[in-house]
């Protein structure tokens, strides 16, 4: 097989002033193995295609550039070799650009995956916090039913200490007649599958009938058991308690990015669904006369809030000021609120308003409404009070999470602003020939003269490094 000749370049002869700038081109044929040398007048020997095509050229960029410069000075004998080298150079440059683009895509993909993982982690943490804040018993077991965690209400209902509950099988805390239901739940547990059961808890005293909603957790097949004891009301309906338990479990699964408004809307919808007789539900956070946040799941709830606010009286306002549950069987005929008499009630007849209390302070009102009279009873009062207590605890947790997020965003902004200001100081110092402290003083004076934030001035300087500093003074002042 005939091999292509190799092309090489060596520096020209050394003079008293260094190299004379001429390059010698060596062309080695496939058979001879002897270099043929020429100066600037041209090259001798056989010219052919270069053997450097492809990825075999391991010379550095500076060496390749020197080779190409030498070949340009010796065009007659090296024109074809120069063309081959330029092709190789272009191929390598294109491959390098492709690698950089692929690397950027990988970094973007990694950042996206990290963001999704962080979001999932945030949601798990928030849901754990919400479950821990629940005013009803919550247990966490492993897949076999061994208790791993128990909140304070669970210990209070069971009348046991944590050391007596943690590590114990849940079967030891459940009535013998309910063991088949317990085994069914444990056996049918699947990711994403929510189960329901009626269980009698064996407390250190009388047994406690409760409705259980079981939610699988992602960590190792663990299960969260949310238990709602039956209301202490004669003739109470277990089905109603089970619906409330489901509503509380749904509240615990509030997405991490829902925020306070999302929680309020979710709470309104679940209260409407959970309380028997309700046709609408609404949640007011803050003073009902000047609400901080208002959510309703149906037009009737918004109408009820509006007519109360316009009249300056009503069940919601009384629940807020009196810190107690307020119920009316017929709003238009109730003498407690004469300004809402007759048609001025907006079609609302039955109202059940419950204060949302957090740490002994009223933070809002949860109200359910119906267009029919006598829609609510004592059992509805008990269940609504339980929902309102849960909503208050969850709202406090969400407020705290939102506060931490705001603080983190402010800290991040401060770090970014600091980096931008440092860059601007370097630009100003280089332009004016001063030290960084004097450059910072210049930026501060520009900030005061234009009534703009220092970080905005710094960002403008960084984004327009060649612009005269006098033009910064022409920036419009920050709106007040």
From TrEMBL:
Domain annotation ANTAR: ranges: 401-462
Basic and acidic residues bias (residue ranges): 54-66
Family annotation (PROSITE patterns): ANTAR
Any one Pfam family match given in the protein's UniProt record, by short name: GAF_2
Superkingdom, natural source: Bacteria
Keywords: Coiled coil, Kinase, Transcription, Transcription regulation, Transferase
Record region (Disordered): 1-77
Record field: compositional bias (Low complexity): 36-52
Family matches, as InterPro entries: ANTAR, CheY-like_superfamily, GAF, GAF-like_dom_sf, PAS, PAS-like_dom_sf, PAS_4, WH-like_DNA-bd_sf
Coiled coil feature spans: 85-119
GO-annotated molecular function: kinase activity; RNA binding
Protein name per its UniProtKB record: ANTAR domain-containing protein
Organism in which the protein naturally occurs: Vallicoccus soli
